Amino acid sequence: MRNNGSGQPSEPGRAAVRVDGLRVVRPAGHRRPGIEVLRGIDATVPRGQVVGLLGPSGSGKTTLMRTVVGVQQITAGTVEVLDRPAGEESLRRRVGYVTQSPSVYADLSVVENLRYFARLVAVGEDDVARSLAEVDLTALAGRRVSTLSGGEASRVSLAVALLASPELLVLDEPTVGLDPVLRRDLWDLFGRLAAGGTTLLVSSHVMDEAQRCDRLLLLREGHLLADSTLADLLARTGASHVEAAFLHLVEGR
Amino acid sequence: MSPRLTLATAERVLRQVRHDPRTIGLLVGLPCLVLWLIAWMFEGTPVLDQFGPLLLGLFPLVVMFLVTSVATLRERQSGTLERLMTLPVGRGDIVIGYALAFGALAVLQALVLTGFAVLVLGMEVAGALWVVVLVAVLDGLLGTALGLAASAAARTEFQAVQMMPLIIFPQLVTAGLMMPRDQMPTVLEVISRAMPLTYGLEALQDLAAGAGLHDVRGAVTAVALFIVGALMLGTATLRRSTR
Known about the structure:
The complex is a heterodimer of chains A (253) and B (243). Helices cover 30% and strands 24% of the residues of chain A. Chain A has helices spanning 61-69, 110-120, 125-134, 150-162, 180-195, 230-237, 242-251, and strands spanning 15-25, 36-46, 50-54, 76-81, 84-85, 95-98, 168-171, 199-204, 215-220, 223-228.
């Protein structure tokens, strides 16, 4: 299904991510071969906005994000990131990616993790301190990651992505399992980053997080149901909240 | 690839090992214990002098293989490898970084083990002792390189551990310890010549029997080539994007 959202089309060159006719089919030899994970996606992520990628688990959110950061082989279509083909070498400093499970070294301390990744992206101790402060982990800097709670560990993972002050942040379910206070704090951080010009693509299966996004991409079973603002989505479907709009789009087809 | 990124990775791997006393025990303590048991059991016989040098090469190979394949598999499973693949770091930086870190550990292991065998247990090596240390380090590096290559084929830590007997044990049989190579059936002799472990152990056998660097230079070169080959294989099997 093509996007028939009513959000204003973004002007050329102002899109952080442009996805065109994207299909991903699991090849033979894969653990789950032959499954079409993404079935022709057209989507745009405008620069400087927080875009929510919403959908149930198994809808293809992670696969779509992996194509944006260039670690997923695609079957057809194109993905353009910051006006370059996704995965191009020059993008590796400009795009930050946080996977769903915390991808940091559990047997190192928080600050040891940050210092290693800081050396890889060629930033200094100032940026280590800034990233720690941004996710509110300064007090835990010396702790081994394996001794942290799941939520703390995922904030370490987020801090790593903030080190290079990337232009585009791709965050896969960053708020899963966090208490409401931390969740609010993180969304506040995302808002501040966007206000500073960073583009954020944030996935979630919690529909009410849509409130905090400038735009929404609704994904289900590899199809994009909507690419619009929350207000437009509600107006178009006549629903009172995202969950209802989602049901309307699924069952109204 | 850049030296800065390679060294950062090597330093990070060493930091991880330093936080794990059990791995250090496995690398250094266990081989010393086994050598001591052998020395005690065969006290008054030349067994330690004959087989001690072989063990000095075999331990690093087996232990380094295991530690490296599990460490790199954890890197794949925890998602840190996927993160590295989105960062400005080369695949070679990661593989060589691992090889440098475990190479440094292999040097430490070989020095401690040889020192313990010679000074504490009284092992006498007929050949050049420093070449024994050199070959032991190369065997450790070979274990690391093979472990890096093998971990690409494993999906779970259990599979990574299964790789060890799969890759090491058949090689032990054909390495020429049980039967001199020229007495083997032709097919086995050819297989023996194609296996890296053959050369690592052959050099140590010759050294125990009184050889110097000049006599084992062929075998040492063969081990070095196998290390380079396995590292290249390990780099090639590291994919930046997956299906």
